[in-house]
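User: Could you write out the 3D structure of this protein bound to zinc ion? I've included everything you need below.
Assistant: Certainly. Input first, then the structure.
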Amino acid sequence: MINATILRSVGLGQGRDTVSRDSELVHFELCPMCGQAVDRRDIYAVMHHLPVGHEPLPVH
Ligand SMILES: [Zn+2]
């Protein structure tokens, strides 16, 4: 009974990690002009990559 409970919770944890990692990548897109990965949820990053001839954002 106890063993079954532990195994089930470990399995759920691994599944959640995999799903969140995949869904994070869905939000990123390579900018066709500067080649930088853009997070489409970040309105400031998206706006930065709109004009033609822009520079890549500084990486922190
Ligand atoms: Zn860009």
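The mean pLDDT is 81.
User: Perfect, thank you.
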